[in-house]
Amino acid sequence: MPKAKGKSRRHKYSYNLNRKRLYRSARRRAAPRIACSHIRHAWDPSKSVAQNLAEMGLSEDPNKALPIPKKLGVEAESSGQQSGKKIVRKPYVVNEMEYEASLPEKKSNTLSRDLIDYVRYMIQNHGENYKEMARDEKNYYQDTPKQIKRKINVYKNFYPEEYKEFMASLKPEKMDVQ
């Protein structure tokens, strides 16, 4: 099959093109990337970053917002400067952010179904004997006894109720066997 026309030709570098200027102008036109949705909705693109943040009651520079006093005399001077505060026109942004920060975090840690099945199989067949577990044919990844013990402990920590129910369901089976 023949090659596409023009692919074998050498590409020439254009020395006359100012790539820095092109890159800078593209960056200047782009709007700032804002992660918080509350700030994004209250943002006014016609104003500067400092003006937008001041209207929301936020600070552009945290070092200026909360300066670290070096001497006791500096504290007295800075308290006199606080009287000329800027007016906050959009206080709802800070209030919404504080409310969102006060909400409890959801626990999003989960284990894969394969790992759960693996751990349950090992406990069901070998109990607490980790050396036997390491020699089991289902130990595809050739985990050492310590690695298997660690995986079982992770399962215990992530799903404590499920682990207790599983262990309770195993006890009657052991009694029937004996």
Automatic annotation (TrEMBL):
InterPro entries per UniProt: Ribosome_biogenesis_Nop16 (IPR019002)
Location of this chain's protein in the cell: Nucleus, Nucleolus
Keyword match Cytoplasm: no
Annotated Pfam families: Nop16 (PF09420)
Keyword field: Nucleus
GO biological process: ribosomal large subunit biogenesis
Segments for region (Disordered): 1-21
GO terms under cellular component: nucleolus
Keyword Nucleus (UniProt): yes
Family membership: Belongs to the NOP16 family.
Protein's UniProt name: Nucleolar protein 16
Gene designation: Nop16
